[in-house]
Every structure is written in structure tokens, then in C-alpha cells.
Design goal:
CATH class: Alpha Beta
Oligomer: single chain
Strand order of the largest sheet: 3-2-1-4-5-6-11-9-10
Bound molecules: beta-D-ribofuranose, calcium ion
Radius of gyration: 17 Å
Order of helices and strands: EHEHEHHEHHEHHEHEHHEHEEEH
Shape: globular
CATH superfamily: Ribonucleoside hydrolase-like
Helix content: 25-40%
Distance between the termini: 17 Å
CATH topology: Inosine-uridine Nucleoside N-ribohydrolase, Chain A
Length: 295
Amino acid sequence: MPAIIDTDPGIDDAIAILYALRHPDLDIAAMTTVAGNIGLSVTTANALKIATLADVHAPVHAGAPAPLGRDPRPELGIHGNDGLGGVTFPDPATRPASEDAVGYLISILNQADPQTIDLFCLAPLTNIAQLITRAPDTAKRIRRIIAMGGAVDEPGNMGRGEFNLAHDPEAAAIVLHAGLDLTLIPLDATRQFRADAAYLHTLRATGKPPAVASADLIDAYFVQTEHQAKGSESRPLHDPCVPLYALHPDLFRIETRHLQVDHDGALIAGPHPIRVAMGVDADALRARLCEGLAC
Ligand code: BDR
Ligand code: CA
């Protein structure tokens, strides 16, 4: 299953990337990076470090340094000053690719057969919106977009909205209203898929570097979030839901809702039919994630 990951690592991005890169049924052609949880130079360096730890070659193409027409608003309180909660990763084995994210997406989509490449979107949708705006016919060659983002019936985590949509509402509106094959995995689903101290223990017990690093990342996620007591609570694993959905759609409950994105990046009732994940089989997802990280 060929896919490109668009990402802003990011603690939960890092776990999603490790899982996707290591999984034998996924073929990650490249990663594209964007400003989101932290600035672009850091998200780009982090993507390279994560690929190095996974020991999988995946070129990294840097994309947008800021939202469309707004200032970046990084999430240092959750992801730390390095975007990875202070967890040590190896130095990158390679440098960023010379072609920028949108240029790369346009060339790979035009080279490949139509409807053969998925986009796994783990971040604000700035790069994808720029692709749709610059090359709308090329964007139609995407097989499907699976994006973590939004809050449908749940409260948001950034004002009224969810971070990935609310960080760049204009980009979110372009992507959600473009009529492409899109599945949105909002907080309604991801808040049901949680890791607690027992799950960290399960990951560490595998002894495999991607699983152990993921346990360290989740541990840092507890520490960075001041209102959660370490060891006594659980944390949602937002971004891993995207590759997990690609591989195990049966573990998600999908509904079609008529929605649009408002000026704050919140989802409100609107004319666009969008497939949204509203429920998960959390136990099965935790098992699949651990298996994949131990590959
Ligand atoms: C999303 O926002 C980011 O902080 C996470 O990496 C995830 O993509 C959750 O709202
Ligand atoms: Ca993310």
C-alpha cells in the first residue's frame, strides 16, 4: 500500500511514523513536513531522525513554514521544545531532499498511475491545500486522504477546534471542501484510543527499538501535560490512528456527516459529506500498534 506521510513530529506523529515505516504492508515513499507542533526546521529534522531510528530510508521533503496567511502557533507545552518530548533519537542518517514538499507531491502523483497513492495526514493541512490550489488535476490522482483532525461532537483542543484544523483553518477548508476521497479521524475517535502505564510496559517488554522509543515518547507525553498525573492516567494516541485505519478499517466506526470548516478551524454543519471516524475498537488497535512497532 504506497503512501506519503505529511507530518509535524510531534510525539504522536513519531509513533505513527515508526509504526508505518516498519509495517511490512505499507510502502512509505516519502515524508513531507510542515510547521505545526513546532517549527518547520525542527519537524523536518525530527522526521529524518525518526526514519533513522526505524532504519528505513524515506526521503523527507520540507513544506510550508507557516499556515496560509496566519502565524504559526506551536504546541510546545505538549510536545516539548524539541517536538519529541526530550526523547533521544539518533542523528539523521540523511539530509532533507532538495525538492520542496508540494513540488515533490506534484511530481510523484503525476509519475505514478492515478489512484495508487494514499496521503496520510498527521498535521495542519497547509501542504495539501497548496497542492490542491496549485495543481487541482494532479490532486485528483490521490487515491485517498486519511487525515487526523477535527472534533465533531467532542470539544476541541485548540479553542473551538482541533489543532490540525485550527492551526490553519484556511488550508483545512480547502482540503475538506475539495471533494477528494477523504476520511477524517477526529478527536471523537482518537480520544477513545489511549495508552496507559500498563501499555507502556507492554511496549517496552518487546525490547524492539521502535516499540521502546514509542514507550519513551508516551512517557514524555505524560510528563509534558501538566494536568495528567504520570502513571495514573492515560493519553490519547491521535496520529497512529491514521496508518492503523489504512490497515485495519474494520476497527473504526465510520459515519458520513455533512460538515464544513469555519473561520476558527472548527467543524460545523455544512454541505460537504465527509467520512468521519466516530468510534474505535481500542483494545484491538492497541494490540495491532504494539505488533507493528515490534516488527
Ligand atoms: C493533533 O495535534 C497535534 O498536536 C498532534 O500531533 C495531532 O496531530 C491532535 O489534535
Ligand atoms: Ca501531528
